Amino acid sequence: MPELRKDPIVGRWVIISADRGKRPSDWDSVRDTSKNVGSFCPFCPGNEDKTPPEVYAVRTNGGSSEWKLRVVPNKFPALQIEGELVRKGEGIYDWMSGIGAHEVLIETADHSLELPDFSPSHIESILQIFKARIEDLRNDTRFKYIQIFKNHGVAAGASLEHSHSQLIATPILPKRVVEELEGAKKHFELKERCIFCDIINQERGFGKRIIQETDEFLAIAPFAARFPYEMWILPKRHYSHYENMEIGLYLKLAEILKDALLRVNKVLDSPPYNFVIHTSPIQEPATPDYHWHIEIIPKLTKIAGFEWGTGFYINAVAPEQSAAHYREVGI
Amino acid sequence: MPELRKDPIVGRWVIISADRGKRPSDWDSVRDTSKNVGSFCPFCPGNEDKTPPEVYAVRTNGGSSEWKLRVVPNKFPALQIEGELVRKGEGIYDWMSGIGAHEVLIETADHSLELPDFSPSHIESILQIFKARIEDLRNDTRFKYIQIFKNHGVAAGASLEHSHSQLIATPILPKRVVEELEGAKKHFELKERCIFCDIINQERGFGKRIIQETDEFLAIAPFAARFPYEMWILPKRHYSHYENMEIGLYLKLAEILKDALLRVNKVLDSPPYNFVIHTSPIQEPATPDYHWHIEIIPKLTKIAGFEWGTGFYINAVAPEQSAAHYREVGI
């Protein structure tokens, strides 16, 4: 059973998932970045029995093997769905049982395709499945937050090559999420405006950090980007919750996400990357002060001692410069 | 000139050091982890003119080429020492000139040696140079914090193989540091006790997370370790500032640091690692609520989308298990 443990100094929670525990010698493989291109793929058609039973699927004609998209529980979940949320103290330490959900969305039956290869309507299906999974999982009131993310490439933490994204539902609001919510709330209290709406307006005025703009979405290099070529995609209309968007917007989002990832691949020669959906806590009502968005982080640099110690990031590419490079490439 | 930019939502500062800027095509090398084993080393004896002029050195007989340890400004500094601390706003954004210091401590003249290969007294010299550099740089009141860290191995962010550590002086207190100081202060206000002293006492009582204990220092696997095999070294006597320890303690620290890194190398087959000194702001007086310490992070895993989104870490090795593995190896 995984555990949640709280750092007694800064209050950060950590998942200790020791069922996935390894002997020290198992860690050698971490240094070899070429290892995951194996011959057997549990996500390919025909190997459906190698994953836990699916919780959601999209099929072409209702045929049982002709799936286009599948959602399955992670075979090695970071958090576990069964059990009670138990809280415990041990002297000055705080401890909680590792309750949660950890699901994998297999984005295609075709092992050779990557997310930006898909048609906008296929990407729309993926984005709507994220929405559907949130709407299902929020019925379980043990869960407070759902993190949707994609790790692409070994250096970005992907352990399987076949295109997939993931979702983890957590029983507490993560620290990083609380910081963002509180920062946005502070701005709203001061100005009666959403800080993300302010950012959108200001960036549209400046222009220099804009990567792409459509009727409904804006892609920018953020002013204080932590990483070279970091990109954010924001809906121009204010929505605090990803899952609450007007239904037609998921296709528009699919279009700009495809465009964004094509630019990342073209400018940076198909790098490993992470994308992360930042959204509001699933049990809370819509709010005027927070604004969901996507953050895309091409994995180009290593996190080193200075970053671990200070939480400061050193970014060797000005966001204005990365936005210009992204704009210049033809898609 | 590097810039400091503040994220308007969470208040995190970022260093945009675009003088180190690269064209997109330069990033390819990031994916090749074997590239830094070049033939030319600017840190080797005979190449002293390839680094900026040294700011500190230890020599065997006062001879000019026979140095044992050298401190030089970083040739590609993240922050720049010359200039005025200018603050500027741009709409909702905050901006500051990138003033600071970035120095490299070349830990040995011998390219083939690593830190744990050195004698305790050689490591003591390194630890005392950290102290001396803090005592010198704190006279520059533009600097508020000094981060001392070591990146060992390419995967941990080292760009040169020759054994070295680094120091960055920043003009603001980093967010991560403030969080730790505030967390410790809160505990002190509640209990009139230092939280780190409490941790030390509690861990000595439990035993299960202790890796090594000497008269003056304790090495533990922290209760809420973010990373597999993370290790902390704490002085058993309370000191808020690294540079304020009784002078004899630096040798004792050298001994346990050598022991710790030998254990890391033995258990994990010489992995890349970072170590980071967490200490109090240099311009502030000694305090009963904060306790300096070292955090050692073997680089075994990748930071992925879930961590970027939530600030939550998933650790697949229980600290009790890693402490046992560390204890078991003979040194």
How is this fold's topology laid out?
The structure is a homodimer of 331-residue chains.
Chain A lengths: L2 E4 L6 E4 L39 E4 L7 E7 L13 E4 L2 E5 L3 E6 L13 H18 L7 E8 L11 E7 L4 H17 L3 H12 L3 E4 L3 E4 L10 E5 L13 H20 L4 E6 L14 E6 L6 H6 L2 E3 L3 H10 L3
Antiparallel strand pairs in A: 1-2, 1-6, 3-4, 4-7, 5-6, 7-9, 8-9, 8-13, 10-11, 11-12, 12-14, 13-14
Helix pairs in contact in A: 1-4
Protein model, in words:
- The structure is a homodimer of 331-residue chains.
- Chain A has 331 residues and is α+β, with helices and mostly antiparallel strands.
- Chain A has 2 domains: 3-20 and 34-174, 2-Layer Sandwich (HIT family, subunit A); 176-328, HIT family, subunit A (2-Layer Sandwich).
- Helices cover 25% and strands 23% of the residues of chain A.
- Chain A has 6 helices and 15 strands.
- The first copy, chain A, has helices at residues 120-137, 175-191, 195-206, 249-268, 305-310, 319-328, and strands spanning 3-6, 13-16, 56-59, 67-73, 87-90, 93-97, 101-106, 145-152, 164-170, 210-213, 217-220, 231-235, 273-278, 293-298, 313-315.
- In chain A, the strands form 2 sheets. Chain A has a 10-stranded antiparallel sheet, with helices on both faces.
- In chain A, strand 10 (210-213) and strand 11 form a beta hairpin.
- In chain A, helix 1 (120-137) packs across helix 4 (249-268).
- The longest helix of chain A is centred in the last third of the chain and has 20 residues, at 249-268.
- The first copy, chain A, is globular and about 50 Å long.
- Mean pLDDT of chain A is 92; it is low at 29-36.
- At the A-B interface, strand 2, strand 8, strand 9, helix 2 and helix 3 of A face strand 2, strand 8, strand 9, helix 2 and helix 3 of B.
- Strand 2 (13-16) of chain A pairs parallel with strand 15 (313-315) of chain B, so a sheet runs across the interface.
